[in-house]
Amino acid sequence: MSLVSLDQDGRLWALNTRDCTYVIGIEIDHTTGEALVLQKYWGPILPPQAAREAAAMSAGPGSPSGAGRHVTSFSRPVEVEELLPVDGGLRWGLPALQVAVDQVRSLELRFVGVDAASGDGVDQLDIALEDRTFPIDVVLHARPYADSNVIARWVTVRHRAGGDAAVEVSRLDSGSWFIPDAEDYRYRAASGAWAEESQLQQGRLPVGELTFTSRQGITGHHANPWIMIDAGDAGEEHGEVWSVALAWSGSWRMTTTRRPEGGTAVTAGFGHDGLRWPLPAGAELVTPAVLGLYSAHGFGGTSRGWHDHIRRHILPAGDEDRPVLYNSWEATGFAVTEPEQLRLARRAATLGVELFVVDDGWFGRRDDEHSSLGDWWPHGERFPDGLQGLFEGVRALGMKAGLWVEPEGVSPDSDLYRAHPDWTLHLDNRRRDRKRHQLVLNFARTDVRDWALGWLDRLVTDLRLDYLKWDMNRPFTQAGWPGQGQGQDHVWIDHTRHVYQVMAQLRARHPGLRIESCAGGGGRLDLGILHHIDQAWPSDNTDPIDRQTAQHGVCQLYPANVMSAWVTDSPNANVGRSTPLRYRFHVAMAGVLGIGVDLARWSAAELDEARALIGQYKEVRRTIQHGRQYRLGGRPGVERSALQYVRDDQVVVLVYHPYGNAKSGRRWLRLTALDPDACYEVVAGGDTDGVPGRLAAGSRWQGRTLMAVGIRPTAWEPIGADHRSDLIVLRTTAGSAPGNAVIRSRDVP
């Protein structure tokens, strides 16, 4: 069972996942009568008796002060172990919950009871608390997943009906996670900016508070809502790692607190400092989920754990193979016409493309970015007969049809804005700042939400669309709703929730519809939006070297079938760097392959090469998108590196060497996660020159040899051009490898 009661009073619980145990204890401070909900253990799986012993080793009933920690009159370190430290009592750390009742901000919670429920394979623990004076209920929810190593937690705060108190919430996190004691701590996270999203950073966790946040109304380019923490001794495939990720696509905050007495905690939730959310009598506020995952197998094991959970439990169609798509933006920009798009579609179809997506410029009077967002009907001059003919032509070529939209944006120069200027986010007596010549529609309004669902539904129905690329190209500014008075800060929550609702309703009405999330590049990629979409655009920067570093950051948490990856023209429009077509393809093959080039400019030789590479990708697509990923080699985009994917009997290895002047470094690439006793045949990417240590096409090798000694990739040779890469494919075969396939000792360095 994934929920186990460890005592007779219902105050000690073990939540078990596949490989770990999470123990929650409820203690009563006998001095104050306050209930403390504490994390007693989070680590390798324990049987019930061992879980009881683990809990007994921490602070006992009557003295919840942090056993073994230095306690002074200025601190009570046990708050670092609370699942939801509130603003009140003997606490001076960062509060996860701040509520003011009639301007009294301190909460004093007492224990009400526990509800442990099971059904349809889902177990859930609800711990009910209430303020001892005011009509405030707080419920802590926890759900373990028996087939993964993830535990989901969230919080409900309720103002009980019948009261006349003025209740205002200024902070409500989804939960705080305690990281077990260690001599030191190291963190790993993603940060960046537009065109350099998801840059992996890693360093020693300082004493004090480390905060990652977005105040933009979207997930943001500058950080992503996840963190991994270890004791400084974990590697890619060994060591304990604790990780936390927030499932939310609006503004958010994640703070890690390392206390000077010892102990570290991570708290995360929606919103940002300064917001106020009134809570009328009878109303409640429910947080998004914050998820925690423990792994004993290093950062690689942590990533694979997240990948597996996301595909199984978060993505709406996680087991589907994502199609190879073509997007017309790089070829045409705003100059979208039916003849031009069909010409591109015919070329794309000959390459093996499966989905054709028409980007910006198809609607209103959209000749540039200055107008027409909100006027979602075909451009009168470019498509006088509508878009049906274009997409009928696309489908006749054997491809699915997709379209770019930006439902949350509005141009001041649009019929929609002229009719409904009040529909935008704005504040009384303040200007309406523009970014990218546009404003943001207030999706917190139900009329705006319903309007968006209406035209999107008609568009998908009338054009029989298979795919929407949902963009969002600017952050919130002047984010108010004057008609709501003191409650207008709720736009920071309800906008995002109504975006979710529109996506969910579209999918319910059109089960075959697939959605891609984009926000000026990688500004909206998180576990919240992934409940409603199929893949996300990680960055507007498509240079393959820069994309390697971005994709390295993305894959720490998100699986390959989430990550859109395009092959674009060379020199690259973002950075001006020239790279071979083969290298661009091999980088894009690490995700969901897309083509975003002006196909009219490609030579016959380039078209032939692209056709062959797309064919190769389709042969390995399922393994890359759904297999177990292993990061091999060095820093992607900087030095020799490789990615390995394993699924069933197929092994796929993508090998990269960005700079040919690297004369030193590793020669041998050890594969991993193979069956040591199995025989592996080289299906593709093998050499034919007979160099010792190379994989000859058709040759067979023992799994233990490939793991113990490794291979010498051609792309890793020290002398040669920049930007070399390869795709190597192996499969398990019956029988054993012939003797001449074993690497001889004289061939081993």
Automatic annotation (TrEMBL):
Substrate binds at residues 194, 359-360, 436, 469-473, 518, 540. Residues 641-730 form the Glycosyl hydrolase family 36 C-terminal domain. Pfam families: Glyco_hydro_36C (PF16874), Glyco_hydro_36N (PF16875), Melibiase (PF02065). GO terms for biological process: carbohydrate catabolic process. One of its GO terms (molecular function) is alpha-galactosidase activity. Belongs to the glycosyl hydrolase. This is Alpha-galactosidase.
